[in-house]
């Protein structure tokens, strides 16, 4: 950062009882009061360079010691003292940090070239043009300093000139960026990256207040030079710096007045950021949108802002990962760890959005199906995480699971895993709650591995286990029936006839037909065997149906199954299958 050194004399200002003075053999003859600070100075050096003091001091005789009150001095006593030291020739350093108050104070004191050649205002303006505006960090720091004196800075043109300088550098081709900049992204090492990152400027301008930041971003957007994704990255960097409550689970323990003041500040920042997000899809990540949405209610943002966040988040919801959904519940009234209601709202909006898209085109239809299935996969993984929350209600869990349409799940393995975790973490569920929870499972959509684990799962209700066993038996019966249909008796005989060696008659010719009596006998045997299999199948189906009917739970008590057997008693089956417990998750990993 550049600076300008003026004056050669050593600093001999001192303080005595709230009075600032200068070590000198000449007694002071000028009293200036600025707020709570009184200065005892000399007319000769100050009136020769300050037009205002020359005009005011001429009305005061040498014998009078009436103080000149300059309470409206921009920059206060510190800025005035810099001007006074310049008049005395005391050494001072001017940089981007103190340039703005110095120039404003010098302008008020009328330290112009018309009063004396080489005056303070001329030197400051020359430093501003040749040094500050030519540098990157100097321009940003000077613009930040204008926040304390906005009206003076605006009237003197400091703000506009700094913004123009910043925008000019932001739009500079990367190959021509030679100045220093701040870039502290995780994993980035400047020594290893010789090229300049595209978003090199985003971190430096994030120190500005929201009004100045908005002015820069909107001006950059109006040029249509930078892509929307780069604008979105600048908004993301700014939000992470100024909205710390994004990363906090609950409100800080500060006083009520501080909390309200902080909330109001954050609300304005959030609403302004949302208004600046480019309309292009993908300009910001869905994780960033959901993060803003997660704190919007806590900050009391407008309905329009919240609706916009839900809309944009739902459009990109298929791009979300599980980590994008795991935002803590900020509300002090909500005892849940994660904000599951936020995910539910965005998911419902996502489904409404895709219903409005015409599925006529093949590309749209395939893209829609892929998107919904991807969302279903993410939601099931999210359910596995929130299932670990001891305060998670069954109704909320089931409501989110049921929001995913049937087409969104090719299989129910991930959903079963989430239910299994929930049952383990919540062992005190009532039978009604367990029935409600397991009712969202579809046995036919479980893989053979998942079904094998489920029938051994001691946390599942008996009704669900019997349904799984019945489905397995029904499936095996269908496989047996299909196999029989594929090979009819006469087909088997024809196949055997083809394999049988040809015989020759008395004239040496091959016999063209099988012995009719042998064919009739074998066909009769095969048909009898097939009828026996069909009779056995009907009997098994009837017994399985009786077993299912008698497993209905009435009044919290299961009816006795002692008198019904299907090869083996069902309680023995369940007991034997549950005796070898194994964790489904560990089996799946192996």
From TrEMBL:
Q: In which pathway does it act?
A: Protein modification; protein ubiquitination
Q: Which domain of life is it from?
A: Eukaryota
Q: Which residues form the NPH3 domain?
A: 199-475
Q: Which InterPro entries match?
A: NPH3/RPT2-like, NPH3_dom, SKP1/BTB/POZ_sf
Q: Which UniProt keywords apply?
A: Ubl conjugation pathway
Q: Which residues form the signal peptide?
A: none
Q: Where is this region: Disordered?
A: 497-539
| The protein's name | NPH3 domain-containing protein
């Amino acid at each position: 950062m550049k600076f300008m050194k003026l004056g050669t004399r050593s600093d001999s200002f001192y303080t005595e009882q709230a009075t600032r003075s200068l070590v000198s053999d000449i007694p002071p003859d000028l009293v200036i009061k600025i707020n709570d600070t009184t200065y005892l100075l000399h007319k000769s050096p100050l009136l020769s360079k300050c037009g205002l003091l020359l005009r005011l001091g001429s009305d005061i005789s040498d014998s009078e010691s009436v103080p000149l009150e300059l309470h409206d001095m921009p920059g206060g006593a510190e800025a005035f003292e810099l001007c006074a030291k310049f008049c005395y020739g005391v050494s001072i350093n001017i940089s981007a940090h103190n340039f703005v108050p110095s120039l404003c104070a010098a302008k008020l004191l009328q330290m112009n070239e018309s009063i004396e050649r080489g005056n303070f205002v001329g030197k400051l303006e020359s430093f501003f043009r040749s040094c500050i505006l030519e540098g990157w960090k100097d321009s940003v720091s000077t613009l930040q300093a204008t926040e304390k004196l906005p009206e003076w800075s605006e009237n003197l043109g400091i703000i506009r000139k700094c913004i123009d300088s910043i925008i000019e550098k932001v739009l500079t081709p990367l190959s021509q960026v030679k100045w220093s900049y701040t870039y502290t992204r995780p994993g980035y090492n400047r020594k290893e990256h010789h090229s300049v990152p595209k978003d090199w400027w985003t971190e430096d301008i994030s120190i500005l207040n929201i009004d100045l930041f908005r002015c820069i971003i909107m001006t950059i957007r109006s040029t249509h030079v930078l892509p929307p994704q780069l604008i979105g990255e600048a908004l993301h960097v700014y939000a992470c710096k100024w909205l710390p409550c994004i990363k906090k689970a609950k409100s800080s323990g500060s006083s009520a007045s501080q909390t309200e003041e902080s909330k109001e500040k954050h609300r304005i920042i959030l609403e302004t950021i949302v208004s600046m997000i480019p309309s292009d899809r993908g300009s910001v990540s869905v994780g960033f949108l959901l993060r803003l949405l997660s704190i919007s209610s806590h900050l009391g943002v407008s309905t329009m802002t919240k609706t916009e966040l839900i809309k944009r988040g739902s459009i990109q919801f298929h791009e979300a990962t599980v980590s994008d959904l795991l935002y803590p519940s900020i509300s002090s009234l909500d005892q849940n760890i994660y904000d599951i209601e936020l995910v539910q709202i965005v998911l419902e909006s996502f489904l409404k959005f895709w219903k409005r898209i015409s599925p006529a085109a093949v590309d749209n239809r395939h893209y829609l199906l892929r998107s919904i299935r991807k969302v279903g996969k993410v939601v099931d993984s999210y359910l596995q995480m929130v299932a670990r929350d001891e305060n998670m209600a069954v109704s909320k869990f089931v409501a989110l699971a049921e929001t995913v349409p049937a087409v969104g799940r090719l299989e129910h393995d991930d959903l079963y895993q989430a239910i299994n975790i929930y049952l383990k973490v919540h062992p005190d569920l009532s039978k009604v709650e367990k029935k409600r929870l397991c009712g969202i499972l579809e046995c036919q959509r479980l893989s053979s591995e998942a079904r094998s684990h489920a029938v051994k799962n001691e946390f599942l209700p008996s009704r669900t286990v019997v349904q799984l066993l019945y489905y397995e038996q029904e499936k095996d019966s269908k496989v047996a029936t299909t196999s029989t249909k594929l090979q009819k008796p006469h087909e088997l005989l024809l196949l055997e006839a083809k394999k049988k060696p040809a015989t020759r008659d008395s004239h040496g010719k091959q016999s063209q037909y099988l012995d009719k009596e042998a064919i009739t006998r074998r066909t009769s045997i095969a048909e009898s065997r097939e009828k026996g299999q069909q009779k056995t199948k009907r009997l098994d189906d009837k017994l399985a149906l009786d077993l299912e009917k008698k497993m209905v739970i009435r009044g919290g008590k299961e009816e006795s199954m002692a008198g019904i057997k299907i090869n083996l008693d069902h309680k023995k089956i369940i007991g034997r299958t549950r005796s070898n417990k194994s964790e489904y998750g560990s089996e799946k990993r192996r």
